[in-house]
Design a protein that fits this description.
Layout lengths: L2 E7 L9 E4 L1 E2 L5 E2 L10 E7 L10 E2 L14 E2 L21 E4 L1 H5 L43 H8 L3 E4 L39 H15 L3 E6 L19 H4 L50 H17 L4 E4 L7 H14 L4 E4 L23 E3 L1 H8 L9 H4 L3 H8 L13 E3 L9 H11 L8 H17 L3 E5 L19 H4 L4 H5 L1 H16 L1 H4 L4 H7 E3 H4 L8 E6 L5 H7 L10 E7 L5 E4 L9 E5 L16 E4 L3 E7 L2 H17 L9 H6 L2 H11 L6
Parallel strand pairs: 8-9, 8-15, 9-10, 10-11, 11-12, 12-13, 13-14, 14-15
Antiparallel strand pairs: 1-2, 1-5, 3-4, 5-6, 5-7, 16-17, 17-18, 18-22, 19-21, 20-22
Helix pairs in contact: 5-6, 7-9, 11-14
Length: 705
């Protein structure tokens, strides 16, 4: 640019009172100006001018560093000191994160949500909201049963998750004034200003203060807040003649912030990036890379692009106290920049979480940040291989584990946190079967069912059971579990595969689902409770710990039913004798080992239980209908039956529990031998015959009953 000016306005809309203030050029191509006076509440834009009218057509644009905009095509608001209080971040390490993905509007916009500020930042702060039947009057549930069906924030807390991931709230390409125009927010324009679609007012600082209020309330409730961010591209048009889509970067430093044939003449894989010039000719500079599939790629590897990216992340962490970031199309953010971001943010707070999609939407001229490049660099990636093994690819119908019992090898790798695949630590693997992209898990099952070429039939009950089994696997596997809100209700979008601009009727959480699918909701709540209660089992956290403590049935020398998976996880090493001496009923003694059994087949199967030779007893805490930490049945010995399309979790009995169980069994066998025959393993154990057999076997004798 030959000249840059600040353009001040006293109001958000018209040109009355417009004032243009020239800036002075300083070193390294930067421009600077100090304007004296109280400017708080005024509005501003920037104007760059140059001799090349194609690059500098005289369009005013919003400052990329603006903290509050009136709209993505509007003006920046000068805030001055912003003092909205934000509650401190909860002290939740990534190893204890259970991530719950949501869209601000989707959670509360249902007319029966009971929320007042529906679809807004503040709507998610409301407490005491309950589902209202369409037949009931406002604020008055139809009957007493509905009074306990919480919605909004209360439902999130009731589920027990520890982190919420919020779909993009950075200023994006939309019409903020239109309530009938739905957007996910993946066409960003300005990265440091919240979007006003979710705010109560458009031309004030409401978007800033209300988002801060939301984050504060979530923190106060004990939840981490993870922002879904889209730094890989912007909504600026690669067609430089489209002045209506010149919003910010290209209005100030044309072509610099985006990858194009001028700044990357040859891609990393050796291809010419210019469509109009030979490989040895000067580049035209107008061929923009499009690995995002949205028209451009943000050039994070450039000095000023990297500076902006790192400073923007730091701004959200310090000014809004967010707890982490989910990066859309992480593959387009160069690995060096991501590594620097992790170092910078972890110096602020070690518990900040960074993870993203390790792929691109189309070819890119850089080496993409894919699975494996994140190893030991401080950030994680979505485990789409585990997802596809469990539910099948989003792009066709294929065998999968949840519906067919296929891909058991890939499922096992996922259960281990993919440390035998791409991860140096299980915390680098984000485990999921459903997110905002592609079909919901329930819709995916329906799609597969309706388009299969075999004769297998799936009832509605089968779909629910597979939904529950999918949740069980994600929430008991090593790694970071990730759920989409509504997954626990068998959320449906009516089969819509990509609902980024579908109406509320498709995207909103319909709170009646919570009533209709209450069994599934309670099951997910129980699984979350189990994982949170025993991080020492389900969040081992290190590669060495997993290899030492998690063994599959094959490694234990135990047979596994066809197309099923079974494994044992040992608890951490304890001084059992010391704990028993202090309190033999200590809860830690009940969780020295756990077994997880997975049966995706339609028929029930029998799994052997480890330790039968030494009379180990196991207690079921999760079966096909109930999940949690409480015992669901009497102790099991030798083997256990797992119903079709379901899983089971058992824990090993403590010594105290074994004595109590033996007494109960002995009384049952003696009082009613037809209920528990003495010849059965449990009967033998109760009468002391199994221990006698074991001793005589070691001595070379055979005892029969």
């Amino acid at each position: 640019a030959d000249a840059v000016s600040i353009v001040l306005y006293p109001n958000p809309a018209d040109d009355q009172g417009r004032k243009e203030i020239p800036m002075r050029k300083i070193r390294q191509g930067c421009w600077k100006q100090c304007v004296s006076g109280d400017l708080k509440g005024q509005f501003y834009k920037l104007l760059a001018k140059g001799s090349d009218r194609r690059l500098f057509p005289g369009v005013e644009v919003i400052d990329p560093y603006s903290r509050c905009n009136t709209a993505h095509t509007g003006r920046g608001l000068i805030l001055g000191p912003e003092t909205t209080h934000i509650h401190d971040r909860p002290n939740i390490p990534p190893s204890e994160a259970i991530v719950y993905e949501m869209h601000v509007r989707d959670v509360t916009i249902d007319p029966s949500s009971g929320v007042v500020a529906k679809g807004k930042y503040t709507g998610l702060t409301e407490r005491g909201t309950v589902w209202q039947s369409s037949n009931g009057s406002k604020g008055q549930p139809l009957d007493t049963e509905m009074q306990v069906l919480s919605t909004g924030l209360d439902h999130i807390l009731e589920m027990g998750v520890t982190a919420v991931q919020i779909l993009p709230v950075q200023d994006f390409d939309n019409h903020e004034e239109r309530e009938d125009e739905y957007r996910w927010g993946y066409m960003p324009v300005h990265f440091n200003s919240p979007d006003g679609w979710y705010a109560s007012e458009r031309f004030t600082s409401a978007r800033v203060t209300e988002l801060k209020m939301l984050i504060s309330e979530l923190h106060k409730a004990g939840l981490k807040v993870i922002m879904d961010v889209v730094y890989n591209h912007t909504a600026e048009d690669a067609n430089e003649f489209n002045l209506e889509a010149r919003f910010s970067f290209n209005g100030l430093a044309p072509r610099y912030y985006y990858r194009n044939c001028g700044n990357i003449p040859v891609s990393e894989n050796g291809f010419n990036t210019c469509a109009f010039r030979g490989i040895d000719e000067p580049r035209c500079g107008t061929c923009y890379s499009n690995g995002s599939g949205c028209g451009n790629e943000f050039r994070t590897e450039s000095p000023m692009g990297r500076k902006f990216f790192l400073e923007s992340l730091e701004y959200w962490v310090t000014e809004y106290k967010v707890d982490g970031f989910r990066f859309d199309l992480l593959g387009l953010i160069d690995t060096e920049t991501m590594t620097l971001a992790a170092e910078k943010l972890h110096n602020i707070d070690r518990n900040i979480m960074l993870y993203g999609e390790p792929w691109t939407a189309a070819p890119t001229p850089i080496n993409p940040t894919v699975k494996g490049t994140q190893r030991k660099k401080g950030f994680g990636v979505f485990n789409n291989d585990f997802r596809d093994a469990l539910r099948g690819t989003p792009f066709g119908v294929e065998e999968n584990f949840l519906m067919d019992g296929g891909h058991t090898g890939r499922v096992k790798r996922g259960i281990m946190g993919s440390i035998d695949d791409f991860a140096a630590s299980p915390l680098e693997s984000i485990n999921y079967v459903e997110c905002h992209d592609n079909r919901t898990l329930y819709d995916h099952f329906v799609e597969y069912r309706d388009n299969r070429e075999d004769s297998i039939e799936y009832t509605e009950m089968d779909l629910m059971r597979m939904q529950m089994l999918g949740g069980l696997i994600v929430l008991t596997s090593q790694g970071v579990p990730f759920l989409q809100i509504g997954q626990e209700m068998c959320r449906t979008k009516g089969g819509v595969e990509n609902s980024y601009e579908s109406p509320d009727s498709v995207n909103m959480i319909q709170w009646k689902w919570k009533h209709d699918r209450s069994d599934v909701v309670e099951y997910y709540k129980g699984l979350i409770k189990l994982r949170r209660a025993h991080p020492e089992i389900f969040n081992i956290g290190s590669e060495s710990g997993i290899r030492e403590r998690l063994l599959f049935y094959e490694e234990l020398g135990l047979p596994v039913p066809d197309r099923c998976v079974g494994y044992r996880v040992m608890g951490p090493k304890l001084n059992v004798k010391l704990i028993e001496a202090r309190n033999e009923k200590d809860e830690r003694l009940k969780w020295t080992a756990v077994i997880v059994l997975l049966n995706p087949t339609p028929l029930g199967v029998t799994f052997p239980l480890p330790g039968a030779e030494s009379d180990e007893l196991w207690i079921v805490v999760v079966d096909d209908s109930t999940a949690g930490t409480d015992a669901l049945a009497s102790s099991s010995l030798g083997s256990v039956h797992v119903n079709g399309r379901s899983g089971m979790v058992l824990r090993r009995c403590s010594k105290y529990e074994k004595r109590a169980a033996a007494l109960d069994m002995r009384l049952s066998v003696v009082s009613d031998p037809f209920v528990v025959p003495a010849a059965e393993p449990v009967g033998e154990y109760a009468l002391g015959l199994s221990a006698l057999k074991s001793r005589n076997r070691r001595a070379g004798w055979l005892v029969t009953t």
